[in-house]
């Protein structure tokens, strides 16, 4: 080895301190364009593609179309459902008539279409009147039976007119005119009027073999009720109908011509009532 030269010296070697970066920190110095004490939030809005835009516009137009269509349809339905009030109204309400009677109304001995209620309905409709007749005539019925049946008929049909043709079978059985027949007829008249229906009363005659006093009392009963309650009255005369050959062989029930005669009288009474 060679010893250093005497008298010569080397500059002192200074140890340098090297600062290594933090293993978890950045390897490069990062600069911020602005102060770090404020945070800026950016929202990126992407415009829909051309296809999506077209679909949305198409869907919107269809919704508007169907909305207008539904509004128009609703308006038409409301117009159709609303009643039309006009002096020349073509659609008329039916005039409902209930015939509450016995075999004279039921058409005993003739076809149902030949009975006076059926002929009456046909003739009145042919004259321009819109009428529906409910023939509630039952052979053998009495005023007690009619009084029992009437409430259901009124409730079910709500008639404008009740044609009351009862009492003949009561008379043939000799029932009390005052205590039974008149009482029941009066109750039916009151019930019909209270329900809002007009009443047309048909008077019935008894054969003369029941005695003058009873037959006169029976006949007068109808006239008295018609006057008391201001009702139109159609009276039948057995004697007259027999003389005109309008009765069947039993002398009680009308034949076809007899039904036509009764129908005409009742039709005129109804037209007078509605005049």
Give an overview of the whole structure.
- It is a single chain.
- With 275 residues, the chain is α/β, with parallel strands linked by helices.
- Helix content is 46%, strand content 9%.
- A 5-stranded parallel sheet has the order 2-1-3-4-5, sandwiched between helices.
- The N and C termini lie far apart (161 Å).
- The model is unreliable at 29-45 and 82-92 (pLDDT under 50).
Mind sketching the topology for me?
Blueprint: H1 50-81, E1 95-101, H2 103-106, H3 116-126, E2 131-135, H4 143-157, E3 161-165, H5 168-172, H6 177-194, E4 198-203, H7 212-228, E5 233-235, H8 238-243, H9 256-274
Parallel strand pairs: 1-2, 1-3, 3-4, 4-5
Helix pairs in contact: 3-9, 4-6, 6-7
Distinct helical segment count: 9
| The CATH class of the domain at 95-274 | Alpha Beta
N to C succession of SSEs: HEHHEHEHHEHEHH
> What is the name of the CATH topology of the domain at 95-274?
Rossmann fold
At CATH level 2, the architecture of the domain at 95-274 is 3-Layer(aba) Sandwich
- Distance N terminus to C terminus? 161 Å
Portion in beta strands = 5-15%
Q: Unreliable runs, pLDDT <50, ≥5 residues?
A: 29-45, 82-92
Strand order of the largest sheet: 2-1-3-4-5
Helix content: 40-55%
Number of strands: 5
Tell me the radius of gyration: 52 Å
CATH superfamily of the domain at 95-274: SGNH hydrolase
Structural class: alpha/beta
The overall average pLDDT, rounded, is 81
Q: Tell me about the largest β-sheet.
A: 5 strands, parallel
- Backbone shape: elongated
């Amino acid at each position: 080895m060679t010893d250093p030269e005497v008298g010569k010296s080397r500059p002192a070697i200074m140890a340098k301190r090297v600062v290594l970066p933090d293993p978890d920190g950045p390897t490069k110095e990062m600069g911020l364009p602005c102060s770090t004490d404020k945070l800026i939030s950016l929202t990126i809005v992407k415009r829909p593609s051309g296809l999506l835009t077209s679909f949305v516009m198409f869907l919107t137009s269809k919704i508007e179309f169907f909305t207008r269509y539904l509004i128009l349809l609703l308006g038409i339905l409301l117009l159709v459902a609303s009643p039309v009030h006009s002096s020349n109204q073509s659609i008329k309400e039916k005039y409902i008539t209930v015939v509450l009677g016995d075999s004279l109304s039921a058409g005993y001995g003739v076809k149902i279409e030949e009975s006076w209620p059926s002929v009456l309905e046909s003739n009145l409709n042919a004259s321009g009147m819109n009428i529906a007749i409910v023939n509630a005539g039952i052979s053998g019925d009495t005023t007690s039976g009619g009084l029992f049946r009437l409430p259901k008929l009124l409730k079910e049909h709500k008639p404008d007119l009740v044609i009351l043709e009862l009492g003949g079978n009561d008379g043939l059985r000799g029932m009390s005119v005052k205590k039974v027949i008149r009482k029941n007829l009066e109750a039916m008249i009151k019930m019909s009027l209270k329900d809002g229906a007009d009443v047309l009363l048909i008077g019935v005659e008894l054969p003369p073999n029941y005695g003058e006093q009873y037959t006169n009392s029976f006949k007068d009963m109808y006239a008295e009720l018609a006057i008391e309650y201001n009702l139109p009255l159609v009276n039948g005369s057995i004697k007259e109908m027999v003389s005109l050959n309008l009765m069947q062989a039993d002398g009680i029930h009308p034949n076809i011509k007899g039904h036509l005669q009764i129908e005409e009288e009742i039709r005129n009474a109804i037209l007078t009532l509605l005049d």
